[in-house]
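We close this part of the discussion by returning to an individual protein. The sequence in question and its structure tokens are set out directly beneath this paragraph:
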Amino acid sequence: MQERLHRAAAVPPEAHYVRGGWGELIGRMATRARELGVRIETSSRVDALPLGGGPVIVATALPAAARLLGDPSLTWESGRTVLFDLALRTRKGDPFVVSDLDAPGWVERFTAQDPSLAPAGQQLVQAQLPIGPGASKADGVAHGERLLDLGFPGWRERTVWRRESVSQGRTGAVDLPGTTWRDRPAVDRGDGVYLVGDQVAAPGVLSEVSFTSAVEAVSLALRADLVGRHHQHGLDLKRA
């Protein structure tokens, strides 16, 4: 945890906020991919890997990858988290972030970085409250409310919209004591299949694991494809 805490508390912060959020970022990535000739198909379920035709990269959640690849060993610990979203009427002096170091919790005012995320005169506040196996959604909500009481005076009277939910297994990899990212399911699954995601054996924090594993998977796939082409070229020369 020490390395992650140092990074999370870095000044200036390492995180960069794209105006418009993840949707804008993914849209720009998709546009660039199409410009490079990538064919993107959506709303089309994949229930089997293509036969032949080169390496295959599977980029999906581990449970879905386990079903697709028929490999029940593709599992890793993740977390349960209560998500708490609020729209508050603006008040001068509201903090950017409240972090609970006693019982893990994080409250962030995202409009501090991107005011376009909420209507004029309002602030978007989102909280993440991890809960244990025996805890309930109500426990996480109560924890979030206590943090809001400490950091956002009068937040109840200022609330114009509120939403709560529980996220199960969506927090990325949780490496239990005695394990590291190297112990997670490998990127290279053999037979030209490579796995990408935020719970595979790649370094980084949160979404970085997906990006790092993607770079590794593509590097391995291109290398394997190149070796295969050289091998086939050698066979063709022998036949000639």
Q: What stands out?
A: The chain is about 35% helix and 20% strand. Strands lie at 56-59, 80-89, 97-100, 105-109, 122-131, 159-168, 188-190, 193-196. The chain has a mean pLDDT of 89.
